[in-house]
Amino acid sequence: MPIPGTPSRAELVDHLVRTRIAGDVATPRENNLSHYRKLANGDRNFWLGLELGDRWTDEQDVLAVMAERCGVSDDPEYRYGQDTIDPELTVDALERAAARLRKAADGEQRVLFATGHPGGLLDVHRATAAALRGAGCEIVVVPDGLQTDEGYVFQFADVAVLEHGATLWHTHSGEPMRAILTGLEREGRPLPDLVVADHGWAGCAGQLGLDSIGYADCNDPALFLAEAEGTLQVTIPLDDHVKSPRYYDPMTAYLLAEAGLA
């Protein structure tokens, strides 16, 4: 079960491994390599709202970044079996994200939250939004009536999500974020100073020049490439849908404590 209160760094690393948020994660090696290959071959479904051009056409280059920034095995001959996320890299990224959240709080900035993985990360974003609002930030309210080919874009517990058939929808697309930003401009409202999101929501925001923090799994390399290029400020490696969403609570507590928002 999740540990109570705010963990130390060592306690959080142990918790991430025990709950398989990091360490030996559920995503198999063959799935990771398949996604890296598809991204390198130009499959835009794996670009997560980014425009990667022809900069990442070598699967081995993608693997090298993922080994460095996520902690998967760097052995190109290791093609089947268990793969990993380095929990130390997860906590390092949480600390970088905390510094950006502290900047947002100090400046009482406008912050937009969004998730393409509501089953796992919705409450992580909700708790972070609540903490920033308590520090004086404006949590951006998305315009009404937005939709994409996949469904409707609306806000639930301060977090933008995609709704389809009365269900919160898992999506990798950047189009919902593009719809929000276009809608804000159409209404003459300022764009966010910071976006905290995942999947294509984070990638699209970064691609359009906004400061963006993204959570990403080891089979979603695009956001790690974007961080390597400076398009995203921070990409946090983790399994984005573990057995219970409560397993993320200690991670969230650590993030907010490091940001001075606990």
Structural commentary:
This protein has helices at residues 9-18, 29-40, 59-69, 87-106, 118-134, 175-186, 199-207, 222-229, 249-258; strands spanning 23-28, 82-85, 110-113, 138-139, 146-147, 152-156, 159-164, 167-169, 194-198, 211-216, 234-237. The chain starts with 8 loop residues before the first helix and ends with a helix. Helices cover 42% and strands 18% of the residues. Helix 4 crosses helix 9 (249-258) and helix 6 (175-186) packs across helix 7. It has nine helices and eleven strands. The protein is an alpha/beta fold and 262 residues long. The mean pLDDT is 96. The strands form three sheets. The protein has a five-stranded parallel β-sheet, with helices on both faces. It has a four-stranded antiparallel β-sheet with strand order 5-6-7-8. The chain is globular, with a radius of gyration of 17 Å. This is Phosphatase. InterPro entries: Phosphatase_SCO2771. It comes from Streptomyces siamensis.
Topology:
Elements: H1 9-18, E1 23-28, H2 29-40, H3 59-69, E2 82-85, H4 87-106, E3 110-113, H5 118-134, E4 138-139, E5 146-147, E6 152-156, E7 159-164, E8 167-169, H6 175-186, E9 194-198, H7 199-207, E10 211-216, H8 222-229, E11 234-237, H9 249-258
Parallel strand pairs: 3-4, 3-9, 9-10, 10-11
Antiparallel strand pairs: 1-2, 5-6, 6-7, 7-8
